[in-house]
Specification:
- Keywords: Membrane, Transmembrane, Transmembrane helix.
- Its main location: membrane.
- It is a multi-pass membrane protein.
- This is DoxX-like protein.
- The chain has one domain.
- The chain has 126 residues and is mainly alpha-helical.
- The model has no long low-confidence stretch (mean pLDDT 93).
- Helices cover 77% and strands 0% of the residues.
């Protein structure tokens, strides 16, 4: 189970790193033109940049604390933070009547919740 959690966390970290970098470095207008990117028109450019930075920090928090064995409790805390972001994303895409994107966000939410629950509980690093 530990190996599966590492794989899931690694894949999620890659997804959130790319998503966060896109939000942080690509202009809002260009993000809005991407498939499924219409949601950015509902938020300010400053919020989108902040969200990108938080996603990058969450991605780092899923891997580095445990890999370096420095404060591994940060891994499930990062997972809870990313789960909160994905809950908001699912709500936004549902309100925008984008069921495919909402389902994708719920899938990420389920995976990140699995990491959080397992790392707080039976598969903790302590």
């Amino acid at each position: 189970m530990n190996l599966a959690l590492w794989i899931i966390a690694g894949l999620l970290a890659a997804v959130f790193l790319v998503a966060g970098a896109n939000k942080l470095f690509i202009p809002r207008e260009k993000l809005a033109k991407a498939p499924g990117g219409g949601w950015v028109n509902d938020f300010s450019a400053r919020f989108i940049k902040a969200l990108g930075a938080v996603e990058i920090l969450g991605a780092v928090g899923l891997i580095l604390p445990a890999a370096l064995d420095v404060a591994p409790i940060l891994v499930p805390l990062a997972a809870v933070g990313l789960a909160t972001i994905m809950t908001g994303a699912a709500i936004v895409t549902t309100r925008r009547q984008e069921p495919k994107h909402a389902l994708l966000n719920l899938t990420y939410l389920a995976l990140i919740a699995l990491v959080a629950i397992a790392r707080f509980g039976p598969q903790s690093f302590s």
